[in-house]
Amino acid sequence: MRLTALLLALSAFFVFGFLSGRVGRVGRGAGPSVLDEAATRISSEAAGAASREALERAAIEGMLASLGDKYASYYGEAQFADFQRALEGRYTGIGVWLARVGGQLQVTSVLPGSPAGNAGVLPGDEIVSLDGTPIADRSVSQVVTAMRGDVGTTLRIGVRRGANAQQVVVRRAAVQSNDVVVDHPDRDVTRIQVFAFTKGVGRQVRAAVQQARDRRVRGIVLDLRGNAGGLLHEAVETASAFLSDGLVVTYRGRGVADQRYDVVSGGNTDTTLVVLVDGGTASAAEVVAGALQDRDRAVIVGTRTYGKGSVQQPIKLADGTAIEITVARYYTPSGRSVDGVGIRPDIDVAPSVDSDVALDRAVDVLTGILADAGPPRG
Fold first, then answer.
1. 155 or 111: which carries more pLDDT confidence?
2. Rounded to whole angstroms, how far apart are CA atoms 229 and 98?
3. Given the residues 109, 308, 356, 372, the one annotated as active site
4. How confident is the model at residue 132 (pLDDT cuts 50, 70, 90)?
5. How does residue 377 score in pLDDT terms, banded at 50, 70 and 90?
């Protein structure tokens, strides 16, 4: 899967730590814990058979549920390995990004040539079930995990498109994502489309900005629509491609000093910039849009962004499994939290308009700014 939600679930910043032992073996003193005692009694006396592994997983999932954290997740060993591969832009799945939009679990982007793309899944489709099981109460990360699997296995997806509902069968495949795509919608304009902030994306964006300068284009559209997030340091590197110095984002966790992330090295501050966003723009993508808006570096065009200003930390456990919990919030340079509210564009585009129409609107805004600025100098 493409970083979905990544992924909203992929979130903005990833730090790896370790807990000593499984939960069922952690006690307050030298003797066994209550969890140990309960697991032992259940496994030996319950009418229904239950393995120790299953009991421990249920205990972990119960603890995560008690947090009230909609982004909290538990990963099996293979699932966590796949999660890490996804951050590098390679994974086994169907090639979609997901986000919660208005309470619905929607496809925000589809990788061209992916299993989902070949099966006719489109951005804006609502996912309602997987293999016949409703997913209304499941988190984005849980659905993403369920969509992954072995190469060649099939997945039946319940899709709602407007008033129509259908079942789409896709066959999972190894996906190598290309998360930065460059094109030229106008002679004087370069569009840099960033699908997710996976490893190396910041460097690719810098290269695209330099190529635009070499071509002497006068404006850039940074297209972050459907970008559900990813690695925070890649987002900071991307914002840095358009700023000379100063603050990009502040990371604020419980019981720790605020962490400030500044421009890593100066970028292009001369080329006129428009950032295109929508309701699927989330997490690390909102870091970029918020920084460029607060620093008066770009005009934001589109619809209000998703509003995920929280930071999730995957913690690897001793047996190779992992938990992921919310550990912090991030704030834009002006001190704004986007959590639950998103980023309001400077120029609104109705969410119902076609994708190409929204891009045309962004190009029109950009060319209008360039016209006001007069002919290029030099």
1. 155
2. 11
3. 308
4. very high
5. low
Residue 52: exposure state from Cβ atoms within 10 A (0-12, 13-18, ≥19): middle
Catalytic annotation, pick one of 283, 316, 334, 364 = 283
For residues 289 and 330, give the distance between their C-alpha atoms in angstroms, rounded to a whole number.
Answer: 13
Range among 56-60, 194-198, 259-263 rated most confident = 259-263
CA 312 → CA 38, 47, 326, 330, distances in Å? 30, 38, 4, 11
199 catalytic residue (yes or no): no
Closest CA to 128 of 173, 155, 169, 166: 166
Question: Is residue 44 annotated as part of the catalytic site, yes or no?
Answer: no
* Tokens (6 digits) for 327: 């550990």
Phi, psi of 150 (to 5 degrees): -70, 145
Task: Verify whether residue 283 is a known catalytic residue.
Answer: yes
Which residue of the set 262, 294, 337, 352 is catalytic? 294
Q: How far apart are CA 182 and CA 227, in angstroms?
A: 15
**281-337 tens-digit pLDDT:** 999 999 999 999 999 999 999 999 999 999 888 899 988 889 999 999 999 999 999
